[in-house]
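yo, S66 peptidase family protein is done. seq:
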Amino acid sequence: MTSPLYPPKPRPGDRVAVLSPAAGLPEIFPRPFDLGLRRLTEEFGLLPVEYPTTRRMGCTPQERAADLHAAFADPTVRAVVASIGGDDQITVLPHLDADLIRANPKPFFGYSDNTNLLAYLRELGIVGFHGGSVMVQLGRPGALHPVTADSLRAALFTPGPYELTEPVEFNDIERDWQDPAGLDTPPGMQPAPGWTWHRPDRVVEGPSWGGNLEILGWLMMADRAVAAPETYRGGVLFLETSEELPSADEVFRTLRNMGERGLLAQFPALLMGRAKAWSFGAPNGPEQREAYRTAQREAVLRVLAVYAPDTMAVFDVDLGHTDPQVVIPYGGTVRVDGPARRITVTY
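structure:
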């Protein structure tokens, strides 16, 4: 694989596109969206630009693709940031103009359903950024978490290596966006167990691939934005699960199928995101949440034992649906130093 292309970074004062390529949820929940836009301007110094589908639910895949094309083609727009995720961005991919996007590379920020577009950009040789949505991270109640803010700022503006640190606190309980007071105070946090290392006997450095596990399963079923297994040889796999709380059995089966495809064995290192274990549909208590995370970790280890027994793994990295969230360069360089217990990404 050729060296990945890091698109030029924006500078304070630049225009950035804010799009909804997954779902137009800003139409339904304008308050966290507007809060995120205000912070993008006031705390990061960027000028958000909205498009026809940004605040509109039910837009067709063709309409969302057209907004992506407009944003990438506009020379005055220096980055693209997703409002939030969704569940059908996979239907947008066939309508994208690969030549247009390849000719106008820009940093794209998003996660969850935006794994679709991140994987697509990686296949074009363009580094994207897994994390940093407007409504969730920028629209966090009370204030941005300092860990999130520092990582996002570095990913936006500063090229070069950035060392991830183990957070001392985390949260996975959401606020009700319909509650007028829901955005006024920061969420309650709980002590964060440190990273858990498995086979930390080597140093692995390579381009990353992965994202949301459920979305990767859909991409593989549709045979989109997933290259031949050997394409990923020597890279770093990173995975996380969503607020839909897939069971340990589902996680096991998806990873097993990736193993059968020959994917897992290509990655000598895996970063596994801290599992979100609470949702409005499953408001689990502390013991239930801990049991859920433990079961997921054990499921991942069972799969690795069969399909990638020599792979080094790090669990409970805050790279997904929990708070705080660190940004991972998608297709960019990640270094996992087992003996030193250090993780460094290149923004």
